[in-house]
């Protein structure tokens, strides 16, 4: 059995604890759960396992702070200053954050570093947006004036997944707090390490105690209690579509405001007139970066038949050059998957794929990695649209390639899943690219480009990939009420 040299970060806390009303606390019943290293699959720390009693306590603290008004009624400029400070502190702690995140999630260290920068940018962006915010006012001369009062809603429940956890938490925390709400965050149980950093960051930046509260634990315990809590009118959730469905149902009795960022099985469509070299580089990156554990991964590649054989051959060759390694090593491009349960799921699809399609790269553990959650970047060609590896979100370094003959067929294939998060189109035909973007069922489309986005644009999916959009003013809209005031003149 291989024994890897793991690099445990210095000065880990003794235990991962909740953070409520400005203090680290244990669960009311003292319960904990094991957190494991994705490289060794050994338990490296215990985390407090929250139950409804801990959620009650966190919601009460958040509500008290909201009612006190120190934060909820502060001027946008005052809140903005604190948010900018938060961004500054996140930036100065980027190396530490990346070290913890890579250790806890198995992400390559170089890619974890980018996540810290993005987290800081999310805070800076909303710090600027709330002072630039303007709302509608209308006047009917001699009759009526009307204006909009924008108000924070109260306690927002934030539930996040284990892929790029710190960055995805920032994506919800920044707009929720910027608009004056208090929050209770329930991070994913596979990767709770980095969420605890927020406490110190927020304290240093001067956020009043009780605005940010954190309860760790299982989805079905702590997460469920947060969703069902009557004093939490908003739930922003990112995770699997099936969990989203359950949360929908559980929120229904309270008619909660919901934002749902769910799963994906996004197509990358490569036409014969595309720059093949660029398309190959981008689509290799698009599915194998972040270990393939990326909601917007281009995990189905549809290729026009006239270039299909050459594309598959070159794609497979390029995939074989992707470097699998220990997450902390700077040369690593694909690290360890987050957890043995997830590893088993991904491996089960690799095995299914061998029956459903033609394996052209990877197909199991990479050489030299007999233990830990390592999967060789895997490419299947000639994948039929009814294959499970074409339809299901695998959420690992596995890609399905399928040929098409016409633009109509490409569109039909692209839309042939229950998901609709992202789509990537590679063609030098300007008209075709825009028309295809219009027709494809995806919340976000990238034309001849990869995953980079302006933070002002909407983010979210259609069909089973989500409901509602976050990003820019849409996040502000989600976390606030817009009250209309009408005045007779
Ligand atoms: P998951 O649905 O298993 O868990 C997400 C979170 O929900 C965790 O914190 C979990 O504890 C909690 N949870 C689970 N059951 C719950 C319940 N009954 N009530 C309340 N909370 C509950 O998802 P995951 O496996 O952690 O994350 C991977 C998934 O997230 C993938 O499907 C991926 O596509 C999706 N994702 C989507 C986006 C996006 O923006 N669309 C971004 C990242 C990840």
From TrEMBL:
Alphabetized PROSITE patterns for the sequence: ALDEHYDE_DEHYDR_CYS (PS00070), ALDEHYDE_DEHYDR_GLU (PS00687)
Q: What is the top-level taxon of the source organism?
A: Bacteria
Keywords (A to Z) from UniProt: NAD, Oxidoreductase
Transmembrane residues, as ranges?
none
Q: Which InterPro entries match?
A: Ald_DH/histidinol_DH, Ald_DH_C, Ald_DH_CS_CYS, Ald_DH_CS_GLU, Ald_DH_N, Aldehyde_DH_dom, DH_HpaE
The alphabetized list of GO BP terms reads: 4-hydroxyphenylacetate catabolic process
Stated EC number for the protein is: 1.2.1.60
Q: Mind telling me which Gene3D superfamilies this protein's record contains?
A: Aldehyde Dehydrogenase, Chain A, domain 1, Aldehyde Dehydrogenase, Chain A, domain 2
Q: Which residues form the active site?
A: 261
A Gene Ontology molecular-function term?
A: 5-carboxymethyl-2-hydroxymuconic-semialdehyde dehydrogenase activity
Q: Which residues form the Aldehyde dehydrogenase domain?
A: 24-485
Per the record, the similarity remark reads: Belongs to the aldehyde dehydrogenase family.
List the protein's name.
5-carboxymethyl-2-hydroxymuconic-semialdehyde dehydrogenase
Organism the protein comes from: Garicola koreensis
Q: Provide the taxonomic classification.
A: Bacteria, Bacillati, Actinomycetota, Actinomycetes, Micrococcales
